[in-house]
Write a structure and sequence with these properties.
alpha+beta; two-stranded antiparallel ribbon; 8 strands
């Protein structure tokens, strides 16, 4: 089963029946290394891939049909995952439980694929980070109440 989302004039699929953990970790690490080699790193330490983000602001990574066949990943067609999920999977070998936990960006940049900028937390905590004022712009006093703390801009 897959979910189909329609935005404007194009359609893309997010595969829900095969979590990223079905992808062999060695292959995932090689793909992550390739993405990092072509990425840029900003002053905050965010690793930003060259690929353009989709309209939702997130960058995706695709396992092609050929790669799927070569590594005996079940099913047919391509699999699409967020690059920050790939980063977390490569670092920890796990992925947050769907609909229970979120993989949250401490840096508030949805394009970032630096695993050190990610944390697993509740959907409520993740959503509260979106409007976090990390520090006072004039005195630099830390205002963030999250744990771990958000990364200042």
């Amino acid at each position: 089963m897959c979910s189909v989302f329609i935005f404007c004039s194009y359609t893309f699929k997010i595969m829900t029946e095969f979590p990223i953990t079905v992808v062999p970790r060695g292959f995932s690490r090689r793909q992550y290394s390739k993405l990092c080699a072509r990425a840029t790193q900003n002053s905050r330490g965010c690793i930003i891939p060259k690929r353009a983000p989709n309209k939702d602001g997130y960058v995706r990574w695709t396992v092609t049909k050929g790669q799927r066949a070569r590594f005996s990943i079940p099913g047919q067609g391509e699999l699409n995952y967020y690059v920050h999920q790939l980063a977390w999977y490569c670092k920890t070998g796990t992925i947050p439980e769907r609909n229970v936990e979120h993989l949250s960006h401490l840096c508030s940049d949805s394009r970032c694929m630096n695993a050190d900028h990610l944390t697993v937390e509740s959907p409520q905590a993740n959503n509260s980070r979106k409007n976090c004022i990390v520090q006072c712009p004039c005195c630099k006093f830390i205002l963030c109440k999250h744990e771990p703390r958000c990364i200042p801009k």
